[in-house]
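TODO from last week: model Amidohydrolase 3 domain-containing protein.
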Amino acid sequence: MKNRELPSLFAGRGRGWVRAATAALAALLLAPAASADTLVDNVKGYTLNERGVLVTFEALLVGTDGRVKQLLRKGDRRPDRPDYRLDGRGRVMIPGLIDGHGHVLGLGFQAMQLDLSDTRSLEEAQVKIAAFAAANPSPRWIVGRGWNQERWNLGRFPTAADIDAVVRDRPVWLERIDGHAGWANSAAMEAAKITAASKAPTGGKIEMAGKAPSGVFIDAAMELVGKAVPPPLPRTRDEALAKSQEIMLSQGLTSVADMGTNVEDWSAMRRAGDANRLRVRILSYAMGLDPLLSIAGAGPTPWLYDGRLRMIGVKLYSDGALGSRGAWLKAPYQDSPKESGLGFNSDAEIRNLMSRAAMDNFQVAVHAIGDKANEQLLGAIEELAETYKGDRRWRIEHAQIIDPTDIARFGRNSIIASMQPVHEASDWRMAEARMGRERLGGAYAWATMLQNKVPLAFGSDFPVESPNPFHGLAVAVTREDAEGQPPGGWMPEQKLTMEQAFAGFTTGAAFAGFAEERLGSLQPGRLADFLLIDRDIFTVPPRDVRDTQVLETWVGGRKAWERSKGAVTR
């Protein structure tokens, strides 16, 4: 509109009206233009559509709200003047991957504390403990995790004396790789007032050396020593959260289900959100009922910080882990016939805990590894489902060792099997030693789960395993470990196709957290969380998927991480 046209436009109007209209028009003409769309063009894009079918595209249009506006294919007209245009240079684009079961602060602390996950013998671990102590004279307590007596081929649990040989004058407390056992030296047990008279709580066990504690504490007994460890300062938690997010973004994770958030963890996440430092999306499950009710109150929280944080449910435990013989089995361990594992709750107790959460519409996720623990949970859910109707999406975390006769019970109540493919690659030798091949027909049974119409959600259980989701994708389709063992895969009948495995880390993990309308796909309307990666995971040999490199990670239509630069400030 030209200025000389204004008089005719205002003809016949009063002066007051003219002044008001002129001011309004001036404001409109002088206002900054609204932010337009972002176009990422020239990519080889893959996503799953609403029917779970893999579709391809060549460009992605992101709206001003950070959501996918349109998928464009060859020949589709591109916007004439997008606000921002990125040439993908033919690189592969996939949705941001979701870890359906991780421990966010645990990953960050592992990066800051003593990490024994790469040690292959007790001697290597002792060298690393001594070096860490020398390099870190403070704080007084040495804390870490990652030991694995199975990987060391030790044939026994380590003892306090094994640490005392290299560090005697400072307390040392080290969690096992799976987080279900702890290893203390004599100074740590003395600080915790552990004596020969100490008793393990229900759901825990104190390993003994003669009549005295050996230094290893399993499951609930870990708290006997853990309560003596000085808690991290708030600023230390903030640093751990920052490190964890950097690691996740670099590996291609844009969302995670945090399985076991305590009050201090939640506070760190809220501080990060308040300061605009929450880069990934965290779907939180509280560590038990007390933090759940103190944080969320009478129901799941809304999405906070532009869809970055939500507490939706509770994490409970039914048993321990296979490596520490805490997994609760229907029959004794083959390699320790006097043990059958640890059941943490009676049938009535686990039902009461689950019912208390469900009555306020919290989602319930329960850790169960052994076949007896899974049987207990299946029975509990079958009973509770009669009272708590509707779309509950009960979750069983790990679901590792299942009696084959129980697998169909998952499907009958649409129970989500939240599984971690990398556990199979790490555990298959140990599982055979613990139980014998003939009792493992329902172990890590991903294909059988799908055949029984069981919703699958995949993750890694980091920092128990690497957070890298491409390791999980490779294992899901090969059933082989990083060394290609066993050739052809362990129980190869349970292999998945790449599309099925991909669904587990995208749409399946989103569905498991009631987030399928916003996460897991690049269909229009979903949040524009995506990756640019260095290879086509749907066409390369399956073993090569493990080595996939993330080039860029985008969250909500904005670049959050780039390989050459690291994290990008929001």
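Done. The longest strand covers residues 38-48.
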